[in-house]
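S1.2 Input.
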Amino acid sequence: MTPSEWNLFPPHHVTLDKAHGRVEERKIWASSELAGYIDFPHMAQVFRIERNITKLKNNISTTETAFGITSLAEDRASPEKILELNRGHWNIENRLHWVRDVTYDEDRSRIRKGNGPRVMASLRNCAISISRLLGFPYIPSSIRYFSLHLEDVLRVVGL
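S1.3 Output.
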């Protein structure tokens, strides 16, 4: 099926969100028709997600199209669920990677050899996760708190 042929059929699910100064419409088409036809391990469904983004400030619109493959069968993942899982991916990006980039200024780290970068990323992930589990609304506030209360750091990690 060519990309233009996808538009011949109505999308299986559509969402509309307004936030951050823009309106985002997401459409998904999903199919299990290619399962067993394409030689790709564990492929159960293919899907196409189209995102139409309109900035409210200047009314400029952009369209992005993404194609994907999932191992989740139709009974485990409806088109609505696939779209939700795809959207959830950005939650990880925004809640973890963005915090590491901005709060910890990870891009300017001088640790670049061996396992050092991976170890430091794991330690930062652990610190972010612990801060969230303890209910801190902002990671920088948890960093300030624990830098002044080192005994609490040891208690939290069980030492």
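S1.4 Remarks. The helical segments are 3-6, 79-102, 116-133, 139-148, 150-156.
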